[in-house]
Amino acid sequence: MTATTPAYSLEFFPPRDPAAHERLVETARQLLVVQPKYVSVTFGAGGSTQSGTAEAVRTLRGMGCDAAPHLSCMGSSRARLREILQAYQAEGVRRLVALRGDLPSGMGGDGGDLRHANDLVAFIREETGDWFHIEVAAYPEMHPQAANAAADLRHFANKVQAGADSAITQYFFNADAYFDFVDRARALGVDVPIVPGIMPITNSSQLLRFSDMCGAEVPRWIRLRLAEFGDDKASIRAFGHDVVAGLCERLLAGGAPGLHFYTLNQAEATLGIWRSLENQ
After folding, report:
1. In a domain, 255, yes or no
2. Model confidence over 6-28: pLDDT tens digits?
3. Is the residue at 1 inside a domain?
4. Residue 119 · residue 73 · CB < 8 Å
5. Quick one: pLDDT band at residue 33, thresholds 50, 70, 90?
6. Which residues have a Cβ under 8 Å from the Cβ of 147 and sit 6 or more positions away?
7. Structural domain range at position 22
């Protein structure tokens, strides 16, 4: 990888059974051609478990990847978070994705000892110094629970000021939203890399469900085209490839430091986009 080559990273989710574990391994093996700077592994729904995350991190590190576990503070005590950090340190993990996360189901109103992502970042720094490279989340189209865009940007800046090294954005399909967010963050003095999160389009109903849940905007023209294709999976994938590859080209041309692909533990769509970018 040359100095001018964009840095790619990949996100996986922890498998729930042996068959899913085998699929993860095969997907990761196929995606090694991308030469990811690192890969990240999410945690269970609602931050309910870190065990599957740790297992997947071990698997991916065993394949030669720099693997970054996602760590949520919601619903956790400082003591539990300290145990997790110490375990990752003992295994030689050097990168984390620090998130507030959602309250695990069944926990009522107990949000844990730390309530915000900047508190988690500060805690990691207090406990481990500079051991971990800390990634945090950014929301070009605003976090769905934020009061307004200005407040959301301040929350992001607080995470960086607490000690974050770089950021990964929520996925989006409007490049202008990303560039505007970066400009506003720079105006606040935030100077860390802000890497666009990229969601391949392979399944229209899944995409719309994810987007409605997390507040990512799917432009009306994309929704209309997806509806037009109905159950034609091949057409959806071809259209999705063109849309997302074009988005990536514009982001990189506009100065994005890299791309973070939300793979959904599938290789084909991400590989297709990567090949298009490499052939530019």
Report:
1. yes
2. 899 999 999 989 999 999 999 99
3. no
4. yes
5. very high
6. none
7. 7-278
Rounded to an integer, what distance in angstroms lies between the CA atom of residue 74 and that of residue 54?
Answer: 18
Say how many domains are in the chain: 1
Q: Are strands 7-12 and 133-138 parallel, antiparallel or unpaired?
A: unpaired
- Asked if residues 229 and 260 have their Cβ atoms less than 8 Å apart, the reply is no
Is the residue at 107 inside a domain? yes
Q: Summarize pLDDT for 109-158 with one digit per residue, the tens.
A: 455 678 789 999 999 999 999 999 999 999 999 988 889 999 999 999 99
pLDDT at position 114 is 85
What is the C-alpha to C-alpha distance for residues 67 and 65, in angstroms, rounded to an integer?
Answer: 6
Of the listed 11, 83, 91, 249, which one is catalytic?
11
d(CA 277, CA 246): 9
Q: Taking Cα atoms as reference points, which of 241, 270, 257, 251 lies closest to residue 174?
A: 251
**Catalytic residue status for 11:** yes
Cα 182 to its chain centre, rounded Å, is 17
Provide the whole-model pTM.
Answer: 0.93
Say which CATH number the domain at 256 has: 3.20.20.220
Q: Is residue 2 part of a domain?
A: no
Q: Per-residue b/e over 103-117, b at no fewer than 16 CB within 10 Å?
A: bbeeeeeebbbbebb
Average pLDDT over residues 200-225: 94
CA–CA distance, 24 with 151 (Å, rounded to integer): 38
